[in-house]
Task: structure prediction
Amino acid sequence: MQSHYPSGTNAHMHPAMSKPPALALLASDTQRAQEAAEILRSETSFVPLEEADVAVVLGGDGQMLHALHEMLDAGHVIPAYGINYGTVGFMMNKPKSTRTLEERIARAKRLTITPLAMTATLGSGQQVTRLAINEVSLLRETRQTARLEVAVNGKVRMAELFCDGVLVATPAGSTAYNLSANGPILPLTSALVALTPISPFRPRRWRGAILPDHYEMTFRVLDPDKRPVAAVADQKELRDILKVDVRVARDRQLTLLFDPGKTLEERIFAEQFQV
Result:
């Protein structure tokens, strides 16, 4: 996932406009998030998502992913300002501040991220495309290990990979499932993706690859009847897979908003020193 911080940019969609941006509120179902949402509604006016300039997301990283996918599916993509009422909160800002919500959003710095596009060919021949902000993963469906062919830019790089699965992670997603699978943490501003096997059985010593994000990857399921494989784009799963193509979707960019000094880039960098 390509990402960058435009210098001197704040959260306003239209800097020349005098009125503040219209805000939509998207909160998770947890008690903490719902209580915070109730307080914010008493202090701030909100509009439906389709009328908003900025989405305020309450919850954890899962809720932020859900909100971003909701905007992608609706075709109405606006900057998202997250407030952490979950656990990890890599994509979120801290709940407590001496400033009002409107002030925090006006001062926020933008981070532009680009998701992955997964095009899966099903056993029926149907092709389905899904977007992934964190990762695309192929996973075995049964006790049988997956048997996959891995190609990069049309050239077969691994004729057979026996494994529990394999994933392609963006820089922002490199600290999620990818890290749990012993994949590398990628700097947020790098134009790279991580290709990481999940419990590889043969070749046992292959630990994956780091690829330029303009490369395209193709995974073929070599024995779909005996060794069925599912494909997952973030939280959206498809089964009965024959082939998966993965590329960076540069035409579907997203924008996250962060308080000054509290960027996702710093959090991902700091994660490399956690023990």
